[in-house]
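Students often ask what a 'structure token' actually looks like in practice. Rather than answer in the abstract, let us consider Tr-type G domain-containing protein, a protein of 551 residues. Its sequence is given first.
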Amino acid sequence: MSNNGAEDSWESQADVIGEQESPALNGCGDGRDSGDGGAASASPRVEEPPPVPPAPAPEAISLPILSDSSPTIDSWDAEADDALLTPEENNEADEDDMELQEGEEGAKKIPKKKPPRVEDTRSKKEHVNVVFIGHVDAGKSTIGGQIMSLTGMVDKRTLEKYEREAREKSRESWYLSWALDTNQEERDKGKTVEVGRAYFETEKKHFTILDAPGHKSFVPNMIGGAAQADLAVLVISARKGEFETGFDRGGQTREHAMLAKTAGVKHLVALVNKMDDPTVAWEEKRYNECRDKILPYLKKLGFNPAKDLSFLPVSGQTGQGLLERVSEEICPWYRGPSFIQLIDDLPSLNRKMDGPFIMPVVDKYKDMGTVLMGKVEAGSTRKGSTLFLMPNRVQVTVDQLWSDDIEVTSIGSGENVKVKLKGIEEEDVSPGFVLCDTAEPITTGRIFDAQVVILEHKSIICAGYSAVMHIHCAAEEITVKALICLVDKKTGEKSKTRPRFVKQDQVAIMRVECAGLICLEPFKKFAQMGRFTLRDENKTIAIGKVLKIIE
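Now compare that with the structural description of the same chain:
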């Protein structure tokens, strides 16, 4: 690690010494394999600035060498091809650079030249974040692990090792989930606690898997996971008895689907899992029964079966229906696409690329500096830029960036990233803080008006009621200060008089006060930062959206 640190500081000096070569340096090793990258970039450094045009040559040579020694050959090949196809353009660009250099503000012009170069070494695929949700033991982690093994993200040896270890614990059907449930406690109990992360690529897109816990005591963790997702995969177990417990009142299937909708997931894929189970044996009857029971509920949440909802039969344990479609002899009645084909062909999501940068912090840790994790909700930023960490308005500089564990020099909307910052201690950050642009920092507030739908609550809710609010990645205690009016569900009309209380299934506009300052935006201005859930006693009570921020 220290070597890496040294490497970085050396790079930053290099940036100062010769601006010309630093683009070549970016192209060389992507910062992933620092040894080779360093060696390759050292060769043009020997001479003085003029011989820049030959720089792409070492780039073209060094990449194939890397692809042999690098553990994840697949992901490298794509990049190697890209880089091999582009030396000509790079050459021209470099010559342009040279002409710019003649001018005295060459140093200022270089950063403008950098962006296209960075994109060359990165995959150009669209980033999609997928969250796996559903009742405990429906098979979320196993499906995630199976997808990673099918797309070649976990190699065979690692899986064999997991299988061996699982067999020693007489848990052999769990070994796939261990690719995502990494810590000991999760493996011993077979339950996911934290949101696991992994990624895989298809021809068109780059997917990040967020594996949410299904257990009801970890719903707050699951909300944090769903807040980062664009696409939710609701895993339903078709096994007799398991489907029913997952879906009835106490089960997590309903709550998760609803939380996903509130968290702003654009598309829901319902996977009917465990179709290979002896009690199911790929029967169409059972599949239709599971589907017909859950469909009305998902419709009620506002998912539209024509547009943003799809059902598939799969088996996570055997991997049928995930990458390839299920073979005809096993399952003659379903001839639709497999899961990966389906999510690969979903229409692309509209991202806010041009707005100010916004990234809510999901998690943080110390690693030679403060590293924050999260999903970029809007805008883009690059290495060396200055950002604000709200709500405390701390000025920070970006030291290093990783998108899905690959070091990059700029990040854009929709990517799952880690950001290493200078200028703040790890203790001073908590999940729910937001990294944002200094020109247009995000709004912070303590008191705001919100429209709230009460989903389930036994008694009535009056002014003075308190609960925990989950908004993007933050969890904050709130109190209802006043009820302003009731909203008629059918007509949308507002009541003239102030209600004394609201009860289940009503919609009200209320003034809410938080215990501390939080980052939020009105729902109209930026939906992702303006929707929230209220929870109390381990239940989700209400969902709502911020209408306006009072102070």
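One point worth highlighting: The chain has a mean pLDDT of 74. Ask yourself how you might have guessed this from the sequence alone, and why that guess would often be unreliable.
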